[in-house]
Write a structure and sequence with these properties.
Radius of gyration: 24 Å
Order of helices and strands: HHHEE
Structural class: mainly alpha
Helix content: 55-70%
Distance between the termini: 64 Å
Number of strands: 2
Number of helices: 3
Strand content: 5-15%
Strand order of the largest sheet: 1-2
Largest sheet: 2 strands, antiparallel
Low-confidence stretches: none
Number of domains: 1
């Protein structure tokens, strides 16, 4: 596969993983996180499967004697290897974008001294009431 095709495939994967405009703060980041995590996992899994298929096609290429089949198996191995590389790069970019959503998250402001904070938290046994001042 030519380098131009490789680059265009990587750009396509980038467009699929990253949002149209960077919006990593607030509620948008909370909605993006599950999609980015799922994309990273699925693209990583696709990269592994494509790499295994590439190895199988290359093994067939090494064991066959027919020139037409050899060319076909070799081309399949190269194509799957290129797709595997693109999927792996895209998975890493999705994982990096996921980390960016956590790193750019704004912390809630510190309470003023003397402020009473009452929070109700869910715990395995029921609810927990927390009072801090």
């Amino acid at each position: 596969m030519s380098s131009v095709r490789r680059v265009s495939l990587m750009i396509l994967c980038l467009q699929l993983c990253l949002p149209a405009r960077p919006a990593f703060g607030g509620a948008v980041a909370l909605r993006l996180r599950p999609a980015l995590a799922a994309s990273a996992f699925l693209l990583g899994s696709a990269a592994v499967v494509l790499e295994l298929e590439s190895d199988r096609a290359y093994e067939r290429y090494l064991t066959t004697a027919d020139p037409r089949r050899m060319t076909s198996y070799y081309d399949t191995a190269e194509r799957n290897r290129d797709l595997s590389t693109a999927a792996l790069v895209a998975a890493e970019l999705c994982a990096a974008a996921l980390v960016a959503t956590y790193l750019t998250q704004k912390r809630p402001p510190e309470p003023e001294p003397g402020t009473v904070i009452i929070s109700l938290n869910a715990v395995p046994a029921g609810l927990a009431l927390k009072v801090a001042w």
